[in-house]
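Problem: given the chain below (202 residues), write out its structure.
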Amino acid sequence: MNRRQFIKGAAIAPAAVAASHWSAAAEALGAKPSRITAVVYDVRYADCRIFAEALARQGAVAFSTDGDAANLWYGALRAHLARYDGGVAGMTTDCDLAVSRGCGRELSMQIAYEGSHDGRAAGCLKHRLRGSGEEREVYAALLRAEGSWAESIASALARPALAERIIHAVAGVPTITTPQSAEYPGYLASWLLVRSRRAYSR
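Solution.
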């Protein structure tokens, strides 16, 4: 082990310990899965499909943007949300996130979590996470991830926002780096829209 590897491991260790404490605390508090009623994804990208499939297994209905997020929000997704209450999660391009944020606002929904997944640096994927609590669960899940990073994020978002109940201080914006998936498009965003009370301030 060289000096750089040691320093990197030393920096990650406290975060890994915190991650397990967050998850243990959630179990002790009897945390139940949050209700995400719909998941929006870009069918062109494998990571987006993995994210959507993971949330669909938790009961969310998956909606592909099919290249037109606005049409989705004013069509099938809006009809779905008129019948079913709950949050909308997504893994899309940044452009589709902007459309989703605007269309969600019309339904009194705001962003509670936003992750940017930047793969423009060769060989690695940099995740920057913001939110009203969910970002800490996502950060913890990415630290523990042994499989797909996209599936880890989906699983974390399906859990309740632990930070809202027991952790109140945020030390900056959580950032973590993972290996890049094959044929990654360069930049994707993951997000969660909820009714306004849990939204975070940008």
